[in-house]
Design goal:
mainly beta; 7-stranded mixed sheet; 11 strands; about 0% helix
Length: about 130
C-alpha cells in the first residue's frame, strides 16, 4: 500500500489550497482515510477523515467550516480542500489509512482514536500560511 500526499505550498492568510492523497496497492473499500497535520514542535493532530465506502466524514473542531474532505473512488484519491487559511494552519499534512476491520468496522477520530492507529502513512506535504 502506498499513499502519496501532495498539493502543499506557500499561501497568504485567507487563501486556499487543495491537498490530494493518492492511494495505490490494494482495494480500499474497508478503509478509512484520514488527514493529520504536524506543526514544528507539536504532536501530530487529527484534521479530518472519510470512509472509502459510503463517504462518512469527521472533522476536528478547529477546521470545521473551513476544511472539506472528499474522495474520488475511481481515481483512488482523497482530497482536502482548505479555505480561509490561517497562520496556525501551517504544518506538514499527512494522509493515513486504517483498516476498519481491525476496529469492528468503525474507527472514531481523536480523542477516541489516535494517529498511531493508522496502518499506512504517506509522506507529508508542507502547508505554509504567511500573515
Amino acid at each position: 500500500v502506498q499513499l502519496q500526499a501532495c498539493g502543499g505550498g506557500l499561501v497568504q492568510d485567507g487563501g486556499s489550497l487543495r491537498l490530494s492523497c493518492a492511494a495505490s496497492g490494494r482495494t480500499f473499500t474497508m478503509y478509512r482515510i484520514a488527514w493529520f497535520r504536524q506543526a514544528p514542535g507539536k504532536e501530530r493532530e487529527f484534521v479530518a477523515s472519510i470512509t472509502w465506502s459510503g463517504g462518512a466524514t469527521d472533522y476536528a473542531d478547529s477546521v470545521k467550516g473551513r476544511f472539506t474532505i472528499s474522495r474520488d473512488s475511481a481515481e483512488k484519491k482523497v482530497y482536502l480542500q482548505i479555505n480561509s487559511l490561517k497562520p496556525e494552519d501551517t504544518a506538514a499534512y499527512y494522509c493515513g489509512a486504517i483498516r476498519l476491520e481491525s476496529y469492528g468496522g468503525r474507527w472514531d477520530p481523536p480523542p477516541c482514536g489516535n494517529y498511531s492507529d493508522m496502518d499506512y502513512w504517506g509522506k507529508g506535504t508542507l502547508v505554509t500560511v504567511s500573515s
